[in-house]
Amino acid sequence: MTDPWVALEPGTDPVERVRELRRAHETFTAAGTVARKVRPVVADSWRRSARAGVGPDGTAPVELVDGDLGSYRAEHPLARVMPLIRELMGPFASDGEHLLAVCDAQGRLLWVEGDPATRRRADRMNFVPGARWAESAVGTNAPGTAVAVDRPVQVFAAEHFIRRVQPWTCAAAPVHDPRTGRVLGALDITGGDGLAHPHSLGFVQAVARAAESQLALLSPPEAPADTVELTALGRDEARLRTRGRQIRLSRRHSEIVVLLARHPEGLSGDELLCALYEDESVTPVTLRAELARLRRILRPGLLASRPYRLTAPVESDVAVMERRLAAGALAEVAGAYPGPLLPGSLAPAVVLLRRRLADGLRTALIARRDPDLLAGWAHAPWGEDDLDVWRALAAVRPAAAVRARLDELESELAAPAGWARPAAPR
């Protein structure tokens, strides 16, 4: 395959390829094995779909309707670039009897537009605004898979996991926040087999890049000059943005800035020493040396002492997550959660904060009992061994794959001390 993200190689007979894929799909759904002729991106997606408990005869759930849908998409960042998307993709969709679709970062379709007859056909498989087309809900499909892997991707015919979607072909590309790099959603073009061409994938990718450029132009003004933006979730080395300058901090400096951001009133040297180091033998001289190095990296006057504090207001992704969670925006928080706070840090105060943040989110997920949100956590690297979440997921989505993983985790919990799982055969 010249490009693994393109569905068909030049010269491939699409009819024969459909036959191959249908045989491969039936084999996978019956036995769980993937034929070698299935593209790796599709094979991986099929496995994720099966682990999430998606069945081949499922249907996309409709989660947002009427006023809720209108309010949600009116406030979504991609609403600001819909005129541009319609201008670039609308004629292509209408003239080719295709559909253009836009989804959010959780795979929910926000807009589905294009040829009226094609829309009526798509309505029958719930390819409609407000429906969730995440992989965890309907398996392999271009918008859901593009969001899952953060790459432009085509999905051709029987590469789709759900059978009722297999007559369709689609191409989608993710759209990112131009300031933070966070995935906002994806643009998709859906129609017949003629879309299984490199041009359709290049087309949606180009429109996605144009949308990102337009978002950059339409972004609100930068935060006040003194505001510091801190990004520390899901990364061992925090990123600091101050006065238009991006700074990548070392692990130790990341810990210091995270703690000072949590304590705008400041911390004494002894307080910071206890918060950072497990080893009581570490001396204040070591801490002062780290702070001196950090002061040289930051802009002048940003790090003060007696007590140690940041002299400008800090807006951190941790604080944003906490505010949204407190406001009940669980789906938004779970969908945008990039991972634990400074996951490699052993600083006592950071470990405590990391656990408190993660426990707050997972407790809310368990209480909400939303199968898609629970599956999103369970299949993430930080949730694959989370017994409580897997139990909650099994209660609301008792699929065979979910039960199997839960049984595996409970067996490990019940194993005697010192027992190790046998190595997998090579």
Automatic annotation (TrEMBL):
Question: By its UniProt entry, which SMART domains does this protein fall under?
Answer: Trans_reg_C
Q: Which Pfam families match?
A: GAF (PF01590)
Keyword Metal-binding: yes or no? no
Q: What is this protein called?
A: GAF domain-containing protein
Q: Name the InterPro entries for this protein.
A: GAF, GAF-like_dom_sf, OmpR/PhoB-type_DNA-bd, WH-like_DNA-bd_sf
Q: Where is the signal peptide?
A: none
**UniProt KW keywords:** DNA-binding, Transcription, Transcription regulation
Q: Which domain of life does the protein's organism represent?
A: Bacteria
Q: Which organism is it from?
A: Streptomyces gibsoniae
UniProt key word DNA-binding: yes
Looking at the record, the residues that make up the OmpR/PhoB-type domain are 244-310
